[in-house]
Amino acid sequence: MDFVMPTFSNQEQDTAEFDGYVMGSRISRASCAMLDAFAPHVMHVTVPDGGGLAAAAWARRTGAGLLATWHSNFHDYVLHYPLSWLTRPVAIFWLRLYCAHMPLTLVPTASLKAELAALGFKRMGVWGRGVDATLFAAAGDERGGAPAVRLEDGGALLRRSGSGSSEEGGGPTTGEGVAPAGLRASLHIPNDAIVFCWTSRIVREKRFDIFEAVVARLQAEGLDVHVLIAGVPSDESGAQILSRVRQRLANVTYFGWVEQSQLARVYACSDLLLFPSEVETFGNVTLEGMASGLPCVVDARCSGHLVTHGVNGFTVERGDAATQTYYELSRKLCNGAEGAALRRKLGRAGRAVAVARYDLRANSLEMVAHYQERAALATRLAPGGVPLSAKLLAALSELVLLGFFLGATAINKTLALAFFLLGLRR
Fold first, then answer.
1. DSSP 8-state class, residue 30
2. Where would you tag: which of 116, 120, 229, 291 has the fewest CB atoms within 10 A of its CB?
3. d(CA 310, CA 64)
């Protein structure tokens, strides 16, 4: 069911270069009427903004089951921006107050649940993620080359560097051979080049600066490294990062935002996933890379539950030496025939983990079980009114969000301070 939710958006940033930020403020009366007519058994809230609070209030008013899922570590995002000493406590207060209105909030990992519990969050559960192992499908090349991947592209076969032709015995058994119109061929990327992919938003908290530094150093050493970027900046700083990267690095192909099926093609013709993001809640990008048969070089805290160092990829600890470590591990994977063999070994191991442990259907059925539980609990509870605190928080969030997008005027600062003090008093 789709309905319109009033939002605040920075119109100056909503351009073709980047998509800006959009935050829900409430649910309109017309949309509430649509919800009333639809009469869902469960309300599933995914965004901690005014719209999410309004959805929770609607569920309480109608007696529908209610749960929330956690998708973004906003309290960690702010660490990569100015005044984080002030904004992080505000973000934590807001998120705690938001989650306090949810009977259950499901986070992606047990480690994140423990971290949030230490910050005072209550009623948290764990719901992981899954991956479509058929869409992100990698089949091993029996000739010892890199994995070959067949996708719905008119029968085109995309092949990574180091893979032999189908006539040599590698590749699929369908008899279709290697179509020259594959993505890698269409981009005129040499067969022996090393392709790095970036498949996420372009923002500073994802540590695109480390990715850029590593690739720049490898190219400076004379390695034929190509870069595929499938993702868009979310703000002006991200647009500046993208512009700088396209000027500084050679052999960069920028796709912008792509559909999931096309995203799978990007993974398919890449050789390596270098993803140093320090703010991932689960690591969907890493999981997709693993399912695609890519060796992954990732942040240890964000993706250590997915990648075992030296087994199906490499993990890197944060700190002053992180960029150098990312470079050394990436360089190892680019080291001629030895590097190609290591990429195949780690990629196949990662694919096996993704298929065995993170089945998308099983993950979806787990959520269905949560829905059934919430619906059953709702039938035993009398529908209650909207808590006054939820009304106040929704109203205040709307004012603060409006102030944020209109500018840092004195009255907006006062409203933000009032909201902050309200959080302190709870």
1. H
2. 120
3. 47
Question: Would you tell me the crossing angle of helices 84-100 and 410-425 to the nearest 10 degrees?
Answer: 60
Euclidean distance between CA atoms 298 and 278, whole angstroms? 9
pLDDT in tens, 371-426: 999 998 875 444 444 455 555 555 555 555 444 444 444 555 555 555 544 444 43
Q: What H or E segment, with its residue span, contains residue 288?
A: helix 284-291
Which runs of consecutive H residues, i.e. helices, occur in 221-273? 236-248, 260-268
Unique residue bearing structure tokens 């309905």: 3
Query: How open is the CA angle 252-327-348, to the nearest 5 degrees?
Result: 80
Angle at 359 between CA 274 and CA 348, to 5 degrees: 45
For residue 102 the two structure tokens come to 């949810």
- C-alpha distances in angstroms, 106 versus 34, 145, 310, 416? 26, 41, 31, 28
User: Which DSSP helix (H) or strand (E) runs through 23?
Assistant: strand 22-24
The two beta strands, 22-24 and 7-9, are antiparallel
- Give the per-residue SS3 of 96-126: HHHHHCCCCEEECCHHHHHHHHHCCCCCEEE
The whole-angstrom distance between residue 10's C-alpha and the CA centroid of its chain comes to 22
Six-digit token pair at 74?
């906003």
Distance CA 41, CA 1 (A): 13
CA distance 148 to 49: 43
3-class secondary structure, 299: strand
Interval 126-184: pLDDT, tens: 999 999 999 998 533 322 334 443 333 333 334 455 443 323 333 322 222 222 347 88
* CA 260-263-264 angle, 5° bins: 95
Tell me the per-residue pLDDT of 216-245, one tens digit each, with 9 for 90 and over: 999 999 999 999 999 998 878 889 999 999
d(CA 295, CA 273): 6
Burial class (CB within 10 angstroms; exposed 0-12, middle 13-18, buried 19+) of 385: exposed
Length of the chain: 426
CA 385 to chain CA centroid, Å, is 35
Nearest to 401 by CA among 32, 82, 54, 46: 54
Cα distance between residue 120 and residue 113, in whole Å: 11
Specify the amino acid at residue 190: P
C-alpha Rg value of the chain to the nearest Å: 23
Nearest to 340 by CA among 144, 142, 139, 157: 144
